[in-house]
Write a structure and sequence with these properties.
423 residues, alpha/beta, Urease, subunit C, domain 1, TIM Barrel, 8-stranded mixed sheet, 16 strands
Amino acid sequence: MARPAIVALRARIVLPVSEPAIEDGGLLISRGRIAAIGSWRDLRRKAPAQVQDLGEVVLMPGLVNAHCHLDYTDMAGAIPPPKHFLDWIQAIIALKAGWSYTDYAASWLRGADQLLHSGCTTVADIEAVPELLPEVWTATPLRVRSFLELISVRRRQRPATLVRQAGRKIHDLHAGRCSAALSPHALYTTNPELLKIARRAAHRARWPLTMHVAESVPEFEMYSQGRGVMYDWLRKNGRDMSDCGGRSPVQQLAELKLLDARFLAVHVNHLARGDASLLARSGAHVAHCPRSHAYFRHAPFPFAELHDAGVNLCLGTDSLASIGKENRRKPVLDLFAELRAFADQHPGLAPEEFLDLVTRNGAAALGLGGKVGQLSRSAHADLVVLRAAPTLAEAAESVVHNVPEVAGVMIGGKWAIEPATQP
């Protein structure tokens, strides 16, 4: 039986994230996974004839986008920043009403391409049009975790039916590089019965579960005080409001037993006293989307409170329907841009901690810890090559604060974007 082919990569700086940076470092890759990592001087003795010298570059893990809506990529610039969060909800509902399957498919694929070319290799995508799967999966090299969105406002369908139908779609999909799970949209667009059924289904199948949580002031008021513009609007639209009042959104999730180590709460912009500790004790994760946060002009993200409580924090891009234009140009999905925006708003972390937000922390939130988001033995060979030449001591800081040139992307040991190699 032939031995599996081993590929060796050499770079001036290897930034594993899971350990200190390595000058003149390298990787050995076999069967799509990392077989060894270390200094090139040590590895070259074991290196096969097939060696790629990547030259004066930084080699690091592919980025992990913990929250995205690829479906809405082509909505970039279509909705001006709203005065009120509810205005945006109504605007995107109206915009979606005019879109076809073809529109969504083209939008999804364009978003995947933007992520790939900006160094992202894994994405948690909220899928509002599950009919796109698995066709779009096969059209991208990205490692995609598609979370099928569940919404139940007027109870036109029984919650058990909604969850059962979504679960059947997931089981009919072939899970390989890409896989699927469930995403109840938010507390205000679902109901306790649906959330309990979704939780049981996710636990049985060992799926992660993700939701938008405490994103806006109206949502926070709706649950903590049982009033406000969102409360009034949803009540007029036939929603049963008996689950509102007396608890914060985080407390409501705890009451429904949704908070655990497989739960990823997205946004969490508003906290009641004790909410951060509640999230930390449960092992739940939080994804923050800095540019979307700025677009809505939300109050400052409670980073320090969540961080100090010990909550695992990660970053996502959200959708281009909720990111403002940049110098009058439409934005693109770019997790490095999210990282720079976050670093500008929350200085003080070590560069390595910043990088964790878009690598290891996101991997942990998606149940992929140790498999993606770091360069270590047995991890998937998901890598990004950055055309940069900082000193070893400045490597992590340079990646965080500068605009990197993505020169190559590898996913599962195969080049999705092949870099030029040294002669």
